[in-house]
Structures are given as C-alpha cells and as structure tokens.
Design brief:
Number of strands: 11
Largest sheet: 6 strands, mixed
Shape: elongated
Strand content: 25-35%
CATH superfamily of the largest domain: NIF3 (NGG1p interacting factor 3)-like
Radius of gyration: 20 Å
C-alpha cells in the first residue's frame, strides 16, 4: 500500500522543507497524507481547472511548485479561486502539496534543470548557503536514538558554462527555443561572445549583483524590473524569459522523482496551462 506521505518523502529527499525561504509556505496545503495514493497530478500552479483534472483522473494528490495558500485563510466561503480550490480538495479528499523555494534552493532543483536543458556544464551554486539539519541516528549497540547534525549544501541560482563560446543573439534564440517562450526581454547587447551563464528561475533579479560579481556573461531569470535593464550597463547581458517559462520544468523534476522510485504508480503531468500571462 503506497501512501501519499511516502511519495512526498521522496520529493523532500531532494528538496527538504528547511531549505525554503522564511516568507514561503511550501509543504502540505490541504488533505490527509496518510491515505493510500491513487495517483499524482503535477503542475506549476494549482487552479480550479487542475483540481477538476485530478478529480476526473481519480487522483488524490496534486503536486505543484507554487503554493496555493501563501497567507492564512481567514474564511472559507469560495470568495476566490484559492478558497474554491481548498473547498474542492477537502470535498474530494485530495492532498495539495507544494515544493517551492526549497526546490529552487536544492541541488538538482529548478536551476539545475534549466542548466541541463540549456546544455551547461561545470554547474555550481551561485550563492551558497549551508543548511544544518538534525536527524535521528540509531545506535545499533544500544538501540537508542540520538540527534546528529548533518549538512546539506544548497543555495540560490547557479552558474555554468557553454561548451563553446556563442554569439549573444544566437544564444538568446537558443534560450527562447528551449523554454518555448513567445518572448525574451533582454538588455542592450554587449557585443561580446558568451560562455559563462548564470540562472535563477522565477523572480530571480535579486541575484543580478552576484551574477555580475562572479563574472558571468549572461544572467537568465523569469522576472526583472525596468531599472534592472539600465543597471547592468555593459557588465552582463540580462535575459528575462518569463516566470512561468523558467519554472515549468518543475513538473518534469517531480515526474522523474516519482516515476523512478515508484515505476508502476500513476503519475501524470497536468494538461492545464496555468500561465496567467498572455502575449499578443
């Protein structure tokens, strides 16, 4: 009998919840994780359409990158899509789960997947942080458990290198094709060849100073402010590819973890496009 918590344990092996930022609300959003798992639907955002898709499939687990509930719910009346999703989840015994900034900060997480898709090598963390975890360790001699410190390397953003130098414009076109985005906003071309690339998916413009400081040629992220395009001057090429577009790969990360560990379990990537940003 495969329980939902067994599946979530595998997600958290890659992306432990302590890796999440202080503002975040990753983890279980709703539902009983002790129930038998009937199937998992994977998405970037939980919407009413995604909930309906899970119900139609007969799946009782929805795993997302973005948490549905960021702030405490003061009421549950169905006044907005968040409340309506929670109501439907409770009505149909669904578990809603999110792996957000813990997946952003994990080795092998969002930015590592982007680096893989773009063909980068020698990948390493842009801004390292060392997280300390406590785990129970059993002494085989006494059968007693003691707390032991373990360290797990994590951090924000990554840096990697292309196999060969490339023209700036050609590289931007490559990024556009790989991420399947309709548009990439970028700063003024520097006229230099590019090889060393920094990435921070989603709202990653806060990493721009560190990307410049470590001598990267291009910084790719999902969102940036107007003045960010001025501030880079000719120090680096800023490429903004869209929040959704730089994080949609999270669904593949979830799929690979679950299908590898539980090859006969029903897991499916959602067919619902949850991108709230539309382009003309």
């Amino acid at each position: 009998m495969l329980r939902i918590k067994d599946i979530l344990k595998e997600i958290e092996t890659l992306a432990p919840l302590p890796l999440q930022e202080s503002f975040d609300n990753a983890g279980v959003q709703a539902g009983n994780v002790n129930q038998t798992a009937t199937g998992a639907l994977l998405c970037l955002d939980i919407t009413e359409a995604v909930i309906e898709e899970a119900i139609e499939l007969g799946y009782n687990l929805v795993i997302a990158h973005h948490p549905l509930v960021f702030k405490p719910l003061r009421s549950l009346t169905g006044a907005n899509y968040i409340e309506r999703c929670v109501i439907q989840a409770c009505k149909h015994d669904l578990v809603l789960y999110a792996a957000h900034t813990n997946l952003d900060n994990a080795v092998g997480g969002v930015n590592y997947k982007l680096a893989e898709l773009l063909g980068l090598r020698d990948v390493r963390i842009l801004h390292k942080q060392k997280e300390i975890f406590l785990k129970l360790v059993k002494d085989p001699a006494s059968d007693l458990y003691t707390l032991e410190n373990t360290e797990k390397q994590a951090g924000s953003g990554i840096v990697g290198e292309l196999i060969n130098e490339e023209d700036e414009l050609l590289f931007l076109q490559h990024v556009k094709a790989v991420l399947k985005t309709d548009c990439i906003r970028h700063s003024l071309l520097t006229g230099k060849k590019v090889r060393k690339i920094a990435i921070c998916g989603g709202s990653g413009a806060f990493m721009l100073p560190e990307a410049i400081a470590c001598g990267t040629d291009v910084f790719i992220t999902g969102e940036a402010k107007y003045n960010d395009f001025y501030d880079v001057e000719d120090k680096i090429l800023l490429a903004v590819a869209g929040h959704y577009e730089t994080e949609i790969c999270t669904k593949d990360i979830f799929f690979d973890i679950i299908s590898e560990k539980f090859p006969t379990f029903a897991v499916q990537i959602s067919n619902t496009n949850t991108n709230p940003v539309k382009y003309l």
